[in-house]
Design a protein that fits this description.
Strand order of the largest sheet: 3-4-5
Radius of gyration: 17 Å
Shape: globular
Helix content: 25-40%
Number of helices: 5
Length: about 170
């Protein structure tokens, strides 16, 4: 097998250009591309750039709406329920996790509930104990959940992250 070395910046630019051609707003295109590439760099290729064609297909079929409005359906001091409007999941999760971190800080809570492993990078550096678990809609049945033989439309991810004392000394 022959390997080709490509700079991360080249892949990032390529992915952003793809999403722009799919009709995704620039800010969302950059956000999604960054998170897909970070998944690859962390060794989670199943959640990396291989998903670009799946997003394209979802948009083409009308299952995913590029640039969908993200709205707050219900809110209290420490909890928010968002509607992603059938938009791309990564921009919705980014907004939800940022909102969760802000709410946790405002009420003095060290806990944040948000979107899986990628957002540990957001919460842990902000000295928040990140407990993430979210059931997410997925228009592409790619894999069977544990205990099933056929692919499913939903997945449940759960991870826990601890606050960092410093960038050099994770807890």
């Amino acid at each position: 097998m022959k390997y080709v070395r490509v700079l991360v910046k080249q892949i990032q630019d390529f992915c952003v250009e793809c999403f722009l051609k799919f009709g995704v707003p620039k800010e969302d295109a950059e956000n999604v591309a960054e998170h897909l590439i970070l998944a690859n760099l962390r060794g989670v290729d199943s959640h990396g750039i291989m998903r670009v064609p799946y997003y394209r297909e979802g948009i083409r079929k009308g299952l995913v709406k590029p640039g969908a409005e993200i709205s707050i359906v219900n809110e209290s001091t420490g909890i928010s329920l968002l509607d992603g409007g059938n938009g791309l999941g990564i921009p919705v999760a980014t907004k939800a996790t940022g909102l969760a971190i802000d709410k946790a800080k405002s009420i003095g809570s060290p806990c944040v509930d948000g979107w899986s492993g990628m957002f540990l990078l957001c919460g842990a550096p902000s000295n928040a104990l990140v407990n993430t678990s979210i059931a997410s809609a997925n228009p592409y049945p790619l894999y069977p959940p544990k205990g099933r033989r056929t692919p499913s439309n939903a997945s449940l991810e759960s991870v826990v992250g601890l606050p960092c004392l410093s960038k050099a000394t994770p807890l």
